[in-house]
């Protein structure tokens, strides 16, 4: 079998962009029409403007992320006969050989399915990480899920089921 490179999803970035544009538009409407909306909703115009400003700022970041996702075709995961690279764009050192992988678990957090990659000696992976923020995230994952690595298909160009099937196929084929 050949290596599989999995990229970020353009469709999901487009949906993020559209949704964010709608909420920024609503935020602008709240800011501009706060007085008339306050009468019909029986709320303070200041509260309505505040909600509008927060919406503009938060979903403005969504617009940025959506455009960035549409422009950049970001490599998110490499599945090869030798192992996995969980985030090749950040670090090529996140390569996990099949001989270090014990298997996969699945958890569900607020409706999002996440695949946990069970590895030998999880704390050694945390100690090797040089980036302080990523090390803290890995430490949190080890404390809560007994593994520093997890994958969600939310931002990927394939479904959770497809990702799980590919991981299990390669794991079962190349584990020895």
Structure description:
- It is a single chain.
- The protein is an alpha+beta fold.
- It is built from six helices and seven strands, in the order E-H-H-H-E-E-E-E-E-H-H-E-H.
- It has a four-stranded antiparallel sheet. Strands 5-6-7 form a three-stranded antiparallel sheet, with helices on both faces.
- Helix 1 packs antiparallel against helix 3 (45-71).
- The longest helix has 27 residues, at 45-71.
- The two termini are 15 Å apart.
For the termini, the CA-CA separation is 15 Å
Proportion of β residues?
15-25%
Q: Which structural class fits the helix and strand makeup?
A: alpha+beta
Number of strand elements: 7
Strand order of the largest sheet: 1-2-3-4
The shape, in one word, is elongated
Unreliable stretches, pLDDT < 50, 5 or more residues?
A: none
Largest sheet: 4 strands, antiparallel
The helix content, as a percent range, equals 40-55%
Which H/E pattern describes the elements?
EHHHEEEEEHHEH
């Amino acid at each position: 079998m050949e290596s599989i490179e999995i990229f970020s999803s353009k469709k999901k970035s487009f949906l993020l962009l559209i949704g964010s544009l709608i909420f920024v538009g609503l935020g602008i409407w709240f800011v501009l029409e706060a007085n008339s909306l306050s009468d019909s909703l029986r709320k303070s115009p200041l509260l309505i403007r505040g909600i509008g400003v927060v919406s503009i700022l938060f979903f403005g970041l969504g617009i940025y992320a959506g455009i960035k996702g549409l422009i950049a075709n970001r490599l998110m995961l490499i599945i090869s006969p030798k192992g996995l690279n969980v985030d090749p764009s950040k670090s090529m050192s996140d390569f996990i050989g099949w001989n270090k992988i014990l298997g996969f678990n699945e958890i569900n957090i607020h409706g999002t399915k996440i695949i946990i990659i069970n590895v030998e000696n999880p704390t050694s992976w945390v100690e090797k990480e040089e980036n302080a923020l990523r090390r803290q995230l890995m430490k949190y994952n080890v404390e809560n899920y007994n593994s520093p690595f997890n994958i969600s298909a939310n931002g990927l160009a394939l479904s959770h089921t497809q990702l799980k099937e590919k991981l299990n196929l390669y794991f079962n084929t190349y584990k020895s």
